[in-house]
Amino acid sequence: MSMSFRDFIEKLDKEGKLLKAKKKVSLRLETASLLDSVEPKPLLAEVKESEYRIAGNVFATKDLVAEYLGCRREELVKKMLHAIENPSEPKLVEKSEAPVLENTIANVDLNRMPVPLHLEKDGGPYYTSAVVIANDKQHGRNLSFHRMMVIGKDRVVARILPRHLDEFITRAEANGGELDIAFVVGAPINVLLGGATSVEIGMDEMKIANTLMPVRTVKLDNGIEVPADAEFVYEGVVTKEEADEGPFLDLTGTYDIVRKQRVFKITKIHHRKDAIHHVLLPGEAEHKVLMGMPREPTIWREVNKVAECTGVNITHGGCSWLHAVLSIKKKNEDDGSKAITAAFTGHKSLKHVVIVDDDIDVNDMENVEWAIATRVQGDRDILMLKDQKGSSLDPSANPMTRATAKVGVDATMPLKEKEKFKKEEYGKVNWREYI
Length: 435
What we know:
By secondary structure, the protein is of the alpha+beta class. The chain has 13 helices and 23 strands.
């Protein structure tokens, strides 16, 4: 059974989990401040500068994601790994069956769209929840997240890392053309998670999304298939023009640098009736969930090659990118050190990782700290790797090369002394019977 972004908003409303702003808010700073103030509660609001509503914090917790996908929070990693390993073809529908094509704007004016300016230092209003979809003759379809800063009525400048979309652009231009793109705002969570997943080039992330939950797609005039039940779809092309992108507050809560990046020209906007624009607050909970969660199954997969992994948490305190805690069912003394190395392979931007036994809840950071305090000796259980390739998001990495030191902490118990390291617990009683 499928569910659209709008269906989920309505579900949250019926369950009393959706906040509704009593008055219109401004896209300039006020929207971001309000979303931050009520986080992690989902919010629906009307804005002063646009006819379209905005919604934010919709997926600000893993519990919200699990509710959308109809599973328990503990099942998310395995569910996502299953989708990556078992992609399936979405259902293609006719244009007349696609709500996202109910309205089309041919005279594009991005200033009329509900795109917030989040902070005073930002380079401009930013699209932050958009999933870009592009096709390549050799590699097929690709979905990926790219922040996009509005720089004109029909232009945005997009931050594009040297990955799959960049290769698609290069190939299109080498053949004498421009790359057609579409980007989606107000997509269902399965499409968002598919777009945020790091897989090999040639793997179709829409098929991963379809396994997570069925997706209906519709083909645009430019040949790109997009989610038929999304709120907005923007059609455009990647131009050869470059412009300054940034400043922008990134996942770490610190500002990323300004770079020359590619400009997209938007040619059409399609949207549902009474459309809702998904606003994702940079550096906060929803951003962290959508960035970090899709890396957990890739870590799980790599660690399970060397040890039995029982839990993965890319932590919010580690910016949902740089830190992870993993639990394993330890069978050999070197399982902890092997798991450290495998974790760095599973998520190459990972900076610090902690390995614990399966009696420790990886989502309970006080419990994890207890394991470090009682089971770790620094000269024996800490692995340090110098001059490693780090993340561009890490402000402490070498600013020129992005080299960083990586640290792994083996907080597992020695197999022969497990009884010595177990945490004792008091008996449980129903205190209400006594008081």
